[in-house]
Fold this sequence. Notes:
By secondary structure, this protein is α+β, with helices and mostly antiparallel strands. Helix content is 11%, strand content 24%. Strand 4 (129-134) and strand 5 (141-147) form a beta hairpin. The protein starts with 6 loop residues before the first strand and ends with a strand. The relative contact order is 0.11.
Amino acid sequence: MFTNRWLLLSAAMGSLLVGCGKDDRANAAPKAAANPAPTAAPARAAASKPAAKGAPTSGTVVKTAAKPTTKPTTKPAAKSGTPVLALKIPAGQLPPPGQCRIWKEGTTAAQQPHPRSCAGITPTAPAGSMVLYRTAKEPKIVRVRYIDAKRAGMVVRVRVFDAGTGKFLRDEKV
Length: 174
């Protein structure tokens, strides 16, 4: 346990020992990790010796700032409060109207399979990929079928995006 001349403060970067000598800090570092930080200084410690300059007294409450949380990957919409989704595929890499393309996340555009006929493309899609559908009747819309991460050919979600801007338009039933 700590003697009267040590005061343990918790900080964002670790523990600081205030009011002790250099040798005492080196000896107390292993003890500080094993013992929890005291919640309040004993009354006799405050009366026996004055606190170090700038150190809080026994009646002072020390507040530390909380670490900021990570920012969400999508920005909330201004009016509706729902996240804004965007298709992260360049417009030049989308399949031409009337064709489909398998798209694998984390793979460069040059390594993606070429666009082809939509007949039988979903059962051959690998696990964790997307199938991009672009019909000839609606060339400004891209339907994206998301394939299950563990089961090849199993569609788990269908989303509709604008082909020109990549903006999310709506979800469709699978």
